[in-house]
């Protein structure tokens, strides 16, 4: 029988985030079953100031195949793996979602916030087989920087795939158990033809540090802080937040959470027991000023320099209740995602200007334990799983290359290592792998409640408006008036010349549309020749 599996990365191979992978089972040239693993958002920091919230995977390819999607499988609860669910699941016609407990709770919270009901979400059990068409699936407990992280073992009539999403081998994890080595070995015994592996930490030597080391750092830094202690990290890093809460309790500091996603996730963490409920410890942001600075710890979002996040508002003094003062200390407990480095550095400098001390990984050790395995973690996983072929995921080109170098050290040939691109299917057949032509994908930008409506033209217009400003030309009969917004303050000589040009064009063109076009074209060239600026020119003819 002619059978094959197609593994299609719908995201996660170009800029780390936006993770989504499709597994297709084909029989005699007919597509029979589809599994989708993860459904994350991507962060395009350069577009945040242009009104773009984030980017999501393009699932146009599935439009005529939704009846074949058996389930959406989730590996863990970080936003780059679950954040797009509310936007994507309706497009996929609401397949059931299977997820570990914390990820399931976070997805439910996101759906509830958008008043999206009726989605079938099931919390998975470990060491249990689930059948989806021709696929048999088993979740494996793994360690990362968030509780309830998993890998997924996918069996099929064609071959077996080990989906190794974000991980590190933390042998002394906090608040959870170590990786399930027995289940990893079981997958290896059954045979693994292809392993997809998180490769973001592949440039680092050694093993990645345990989460446990960060707790002691929190305690030491908090003890030395005379003012308020600010800690910023991802809202879903619940284990990290708990360590900071425990340090605050030890040093007699009240804890305030800032940021919508941080508050939402902490409500889940307290309700479900991921963080103990301490009496009289948590305060509202409106209460921060009531306490001495050395009795307050603020845990907030914005560690990636996101425009409009809680830390950005506090640092720029736009937050209604919380300010950064000279005796405060701001602690970045996360590394910048590749591409965000400039924005994080700009935010750090803004905070320093407020007089506070900023502590970040470039100047101090053990502020942050990465959730991603280093070189020895990758070697260990590969030796345990023993896959025939490997494929780096959740990565960038340079990290993929570093991962390939590790695999070469373990004896894998270049033809056994598949560095793919988003939309490029890797085909697994009996005894061999191959590639097929890329599926066309585009960036699906989310702007408020709008999905995919903001394209290149609108982005370029917003960029131009933000950079060059706008000149409004108002024509009322034979009178011409000019209004400038973000372009140039009233410059008498230049504006007189512009008004004169418009009056000449008014005599030349009788058709309104032709007149508008002439004004925009000729004024644009003239203004650039005078002051080397390209404002957006709009004309209103009354």
Could you explain how this protein is built, in words?
Helix 5 runs parallel beside helix 6 and helix 13 (492-508) runs antiparallel to helix 14 (512-531). The protein has an eight-stranded mixed β-sheet with strand order 7-6-5-3-2-1-19-20. With 542 residues, the protein is of the alpha/beta class. The longest helix is centred in the last third of the chain and has 20 residues, at 512-531. Helices cover 30% and strands 23% of the residues. Strand 1 and strand 2 form a beta hairpin.
What labels would you give this structure?
542 residues, alpha/beta, eight-stranded mixed β-sheet, six-stranded mixed β-sheet, 23% strand
Shape: globular
Number of strands: 25
Q: Return the structural class.
A: alpha/beta
Average pLDDT rating: 89
Radius of gyration: 27 Å
Estimated helix fraction: 25-40%
β-strand amount:
15-25%
Gap from first CA to last CA: 73 Å
Strand order of the largest sheet: 7-6-5-3-2-1-19-20
Helical element count? Answer: 14
The profile of the biggest β sheet is:
8 strands, mixed
Uncertain regions spanning at least 5 consecutive residues: none
